[in-house]
Amino acid sequence: MDVQNNERTFSLQKRSERCVCKYCGGHLRVKSVVFNEIVDGRTELYCESCGRIEFGVEPEIYRCAKYYVDELDYNCYQDMDYSETTRQMSIARVSEIMEWVAINISIIGADGFTVPIKLDLNKTSECLHLTDDDL
Predict the structure, then answer these.
(1) Fewer Cβ in 10 A, N or C end of the chain?
(2) Alpha-carbon distance 67 to 92, whole Å?
(3) CA distance between the termini of the chain
(4) Residues 6+ away with beta carbon under 8 Å from 108
């Protein structure tokens, strides 16, 4: 294995520790993948939950994209029947857009966020928090 492959594997390992699958939010792991007749396997990030080869996104971006799609009932693929698959594809697409913006305004770099991020979990979680006054 050459130096370039070692650097790539190290970079993927670091990314797998902080990023999640942009389709399902699942854990990513470094996996050697063999493509067709190519004998030398290539190291990729693999989602254990949905079985995709996936580069992933920061978990905060995934949570925001999932919230956006679910709360606004957003569907990027209106020409397809709505299903869990098209929902996941919409979350992945919105994640890509959000990540593109974050990279281009320089708040995400090669090692994750470059500034502290404060995510309001009350707005992006699936839990409903009620007080006695709300009832």
Answers:
(1) C
(2) 12
(3) 62
(4) 58, 99, 102, 114
Residues 21, 50 contacting (CB under 8 angstroms):
yes
**What DSSP designation does 36 have?**
T
Find out whether 25 and 7 touch, Cβ atoms under 8 Å: no
Helices (H) and strands (E) in the chain, counts: 4, 4
Q: Convert the pLDDT of each residue in 73-109 to its tens digit.
A: 999 999 998 899 999 999 999 999 999 999 999 999 8
Length of the chain: 135
Q: Give the predicted TM-score (pTM) of the model.
A: 0.79
Can you say whether the dihedral through the CA atoms of 122, 127, 128, 131 is positive or negative?
Answer: negative
Condensed to tens digits (0 to 9), the pLDDT of residues 31-64 reads 987 766 655 567 899 999 999 999 999 999 999 9
DSSP one-letter code for 114: S
